[in-house]
Write a structure and sequence with these properties.
The protein has about 130 residues and is mainly α. The chain has helices spanning about 5-10, 25-35, 40, 45-55, 60-70, 75-85, 95, 100-125, and strands at about 10-15, 20-25.
Length: about 130
């Protein structure tokens, strides 16, 4: 898996957790990354990430569009985002149900992988 520098560093927020400063991806970047890696994790996981972020009102569409542009997945995401905006997500409700706990588990796994990659990148730069 290879990420360009803009794709790797864009959308990273630094949070202090238990005295450690950790880089954590924003919600919009995480959703865009799910669509970028939809072939590896499954389109259903990417759709649930989008739907879950939308339901929790944690998604800013301008940010999502920005990160989708960086990841070059705007056209892939467009019909799904429009479906959510226009309330047509109920048609896909069965596909989107029941994945919230899996998304949380994958999010933690991706966070750990991202932190490890980030630390390795920092080590390689020095």
């Amino acid at each position: 898996m290879h990420l360009s520098e803009p794709s790797f560093f864009a959308g990273v927020e630094h949070h202090v957790i238990e005295g450690l400063q950790l880089p954590i991806s924003s919600v919009a970047k995480t959703v865009a990354d799910c669509f970028k890696f939809r072939h590896q994790i499954g389109l259903d996981v990417a759709l649930e990430a989008l739907a879950d972020a939308w339901r929790q009102q944690r998604l800013i569409l301008a940010e999502l569009n920005h990160f989708a542009s960086i990841n070059r997945v705007q056209r892939v995401m467009q019909p799904y985002v429009e479906g959510l905006i226009h309330g047509n997500a109920k048609r896909n409700g069965e596909l989107l149900k029941g994945w919230a706990s899996l998304i949380r588990a994958i999010s933690w796994s991706l966070l750990i992988v991202f932190v490890l990659l980030y630390c390795c990148a920092l080590g390689a730069m020095t």
